[in-house]
Fold this sequence. Notes:
The complex is a heterodimer. Chain A is of the alpha+beta class. Chain A is built from 11 helices and 12 strands.
Amino acid sequence: MTRLTRILRTTAFKLALLYIAVFTGLSGFLLLYISQSTRQLMDTQVSQTVDAEISGLVEEYVRGGIRAVAESIDRRSRRPDASLYLLMDFSGNTIVGNISRLPTVVLDETDGGLRRMRYSRVDATGEVEREALVRIFDLRGGFRLLVGRDLGEQSRFSTILAGALRLWLAAVIIMAAATWFFVSRRVMKRIDAIAATSQTIMHGNLSGRLPVAGNGDEFDRLATNLNEMLERIELLMQGMKDVTDNIAHDLKTPLTRLRTRVENALREAKTTEDYREALLSTIEESEQLIRIFDALLRIARVEAMAPDADMPETDIARLAAEMADLYGPVLEDEDGELVTILPDQPIMALCNRDLVAQGLVNLIENSLKYGRPAEGPLVITVRAGTENGRAVLSVADNGLGIAEEDRDRVSGRFVRLDASRTRPGYGLGLSLVKAIARLHGGNLVLKDAAPGLMACFDLKRAETSGGNTDDGQASDRKPG
Amino acid sequence: MLRILIIEDDAEASAYLAKGLKELGHLADQAADGDTGLHMAQSASYDVLIVDRMLPKRDGLSVIEALRKAGDQTPVLILSALGQVDDRVMGLKAGGDDYLPKPYAFTELLARIEALARRPKAGGEVVTSYRVGDLELDRLTHTCRRGDQDIPLQPREFRLLEYLMQHAGQVVTRTMLLENVWEYHFDPQTNVIDVHISRLRSKIDKDFDKPLLHTIRGAGYTVRDTSD
Lengths: 480, 228
């Protein structure tokens, strides 16, 4: 596309054309209106003047007869800027007047109205054809009187107006063209800048940002929005890259181990028992791999589930108690302690029991893996309660906690905060909890438990969970 | 020996399964689509049916429903690669007895098939006590004795031992324990079940010569009197 066609295609160009058309139309209309009304005004003035002269002459005729009229006309004709006069006898011969020739038909019509006509007049330069507005009056005795005004003034005025219109049009077109030129140049410059930046971004340089002029105009707003979008895309791409790197690392490690074991078995195993041992450990290792994929798939499935799917009512206080019962011995074996803070009444929530249990277990296991304090026993606190009308489950430890700036990203897939990635786990636990919380219309929130980390997620309460009505049922239930 | 019918359209998976089961001394028939499977299940008597959910001609769930409608109560293990979270619920609602998502470990499948096949028939006489070697569990009095010694058990430990003894001689996997003793279906990441088992073991085996609660590597646990 050449530069010219590009310019012709710009919105600025089309707008300029439209404005020229609109302005021209408007000014044409204005000029037409002015000339029309001026003409009418002038016609009225002419008519009044002519009428006044006729009545004056008629008066003189009554007083002094035809001679007086002729003298008066002769006198009046000599004045500068004189009207047109013509006095004729009954046979049409001119008695006196300053018109040299006029169409004969004119004189036959004596209905008293004003009419336009062309006439010839003796001038300093000779005989010239002019236009005039005249009225013909019959005097008694067969005389005819013609009085009129030359329209030269009017046509001069029209010429001036037409000239003004032409000038005006030229000015409008020039101004429009100039405005369009500057506007489109500016716009093109900005657009070209944006296009150039997006080109570099499309070529893979995601760190590029659109120029913001800082004057807050629409281009700035657009550029700011696009920049925010680019920021987000860059972040997502970075996350994607991290996930890929981490998957590569986390899957490669067990695969390498698997391979090493098989190779060792091939090289060193002597007895059937040795082979059996090698195969068993191979299975165990591959089961670890399957678990990673299962965990990934589970997250994907939970994320794909419709959040409004029918959720049965579940007592999450009891669920928390049962999970604490499941994990209590694990902590006791390590001289730690699992404390529960549970209400006496059941907390009925609309949730998928297995998924919520999985979420809670993931949080407990995270605390087990990463929540150990620098010294002293690990204490995990499992809590179920209500907050702002939502059911809340939380797990807190007394470990080192997570720095505030890391709390957001730690629930990303395969994110592990220890850079060496030597501690157990795949960095998928919190991702699943987050997905489960989202499925239930809630969110996973990590807080400072001072010391340690507290992870909470909220669920929708069942509407019937009136507390008291559920009391009897709860105590009937088999404990633990 | 169990008579098992595998209704699975993936020929390789089906053959692998049948081979594994036959090597263990079971009889395994194969059907590659829902219609054939239903026909075979109705014309012969099987101890367990293994039914894949996605089948040509007739969906796995519809096979189970048709069987149940005809009064056939043969235990059914559903295999599914669908993997929706509420898949299990749908499968069990349709009349399945157990559910295993793909990919599964063969040991897990085997343990579940044996548990299904040896499940006490509905309406049969109620077992009030279990006995393995000199270990005795009384379900009415909720007491446990080994030899002449009373063993006090926590309620959860009792349920755990009860399930293990109910399936004495069979391998019981960790997920089976979680599903049947705790009644939760999820994936515990750590060895949480092992901790409970080792506590139980310290109560019932520690002070005695002969261990009864055995760990089966790569599979799970079993309660067995090895002198049998």
